[in-house]
Amino acid sequence: MSCIFGFIAIILIENFPASSCEQAQTEIVDNWNSGFKGKISINLNNDVTGGWTMILSFPVAVLNLQLWRAKIVGNQNDRVFTLKNMPWNAQMSEGVFELFFLAQKAVPKDSAPIGNVVFRRGVPATSYPSTTSPSSPQQSTGGSSSSSSRTNLPSASPPSTSRLSSLQPITNCSSLPPPKTTNSATAKPTTASPPNPGKYDYAQVLKLSILFYEAQRSGKLPSKNRVPWRKDSALNDRGENGEDLSGGWYDAGDYVKFGFPMASSATVLAWGLIEYKKAYEVAGQYELMLDSIKWATDYLIKAHTKKEEFYGQVGDGHLDHAYWGRPENMTMARPAFKITPEKPGTDLAAETAAALAAASIAFKARNTQSSKAYAETLLRHAKELFAFADKYRGVYSDSISNAADFYRSYSGYKDELVWGAIWLYRATKDTSFLSKATRYYNEFGMNGQAWAFSWDDKKAGVQLLLAALTKKATYQSAIQSSLDSWLPGGSVTYTPKGLAWRAKWGSNRYAANTAFLALVAADQGFRPASYREFAKKQIHYMLGDSGRSFVVGFGHNPPQRPHHSSSSCPSAPAPCDWSNFHDPSPNAHVLKGALVGGPDQNDNYTDDRTNYVTNEVATDYNAGFQSAVAGLEQLRLNDAGAS
Known about the structure:
By secondary structure, the chain is of the alpha+beta class.
């Protein structure tokens, strides 16, 4: 195995003498044939204001340098890189600043090169002195996380290895004189920048999660497609009479378009945008988020081919799961399945009505002529679908039997019928919908403690929305009972490291969904301190408090092998088949922002592509998670006094 050399970090601070240097620790956290991973930790003795710059230099060329906590603003011969702060970290509090990066080696199988770092406060990096490399390397092997602002990782990714980190404290930084600063313009913090992001950069997580949904897109991709390894696919998805059913999201690591979880995901994402619009705006993701929701709702509108007809699935789950490859190369049959008056699907139609109604609120709030017109279109389809759901009763997975093996509606249709009525009331203010919701709530016995909030079970969401809309004690006590069961000491099991663990399949998903509900409930005045603390701990567990990140492309030691077919495939024209499924190497592409299923009840988790229970991703996994992250970000902004 080739050696891994430690980086020497030399820290220069503007307005301080050269002998007064801050300490850095550098770490090579992974090394493989074609590339390596590095981490720089700078111990800031006091607050950084006015921005910062950094020079990262190597004795040999390195390719495709990737990082996301700094911008690359200069590159000299792939050896000397000028880095500048991001808008959100121009000001940093004293403490440890960490920056991860990835790079490819110019010559595969070479040792990871020794690097130097020069860090400066508020000075444009234009004339830095050259730096020399130390003569005593540190050896280490190991695996860790990376953070990247691009889509493609090095072409050959590292194998799974045990972590043996190498830390090298640097104290002799006085040996290098400070650079001259002729005509230097100190970078000023922009007043529009958000406050310090805190322990985890929620805004970055929002950006990555939106990218995950873009990676799930089916159909004709836009010219502004931001996931370069994804191309047009399934353009010929059609209904029984040739109806265009292209578009929408692929459900998970496969390529079926399951309408029920897709609609549920769209509802929860739209709900999060309605509640936490400011978080998306400050993160610069508001328009992208609307576009993300619209990709799903455009498809749901297409699938509503008649007032009393809706296509709830495209693709045969059994045929689809026999295929491992790119969606662009699919050749198997993709039949479409629909609900009709003769084959009803109350739950599916009512959930889709909820999604379109919630989205109509989000688009109406954008307050442009086109967005308000689109909101009206959404609302028209929502009303028709709810009427269809209410008139013809039945469980959709009984009518679409192919869905039963994958997304059977175990909770039945009653919760969705109440759910759809509530969202239509919220979108229209028509009290007939509220009357129907409250009547069905009592008739269907929805007052009991909810098991979990998910694509299948809306009871807790129903309780929360009715509590918020009516302010009545019966709904308030119901939602508090449901949420209290998730708090420490309640009926929900906790893992040793603190995840509220409901079930093995998608364990992160249930905790994230409940975290979102808890944040919304806290905003309504229900146990705000307890519910916000619960939500924060659950989301932080997934972001890294567990000892690793469960979000692909984010934080410390994120998953590299999610059960996700398209990201496991190398770029065309290279072949992709079941050999890629069994390949122990990391996925060829980073599925940025995807939340994997999660650990078992003892916090055990293996980054194994073949384990679809703990390591698959899905549109419904990210929906509640993303909305909870938006809630935490808005709470942070409010606490910081951001306007």
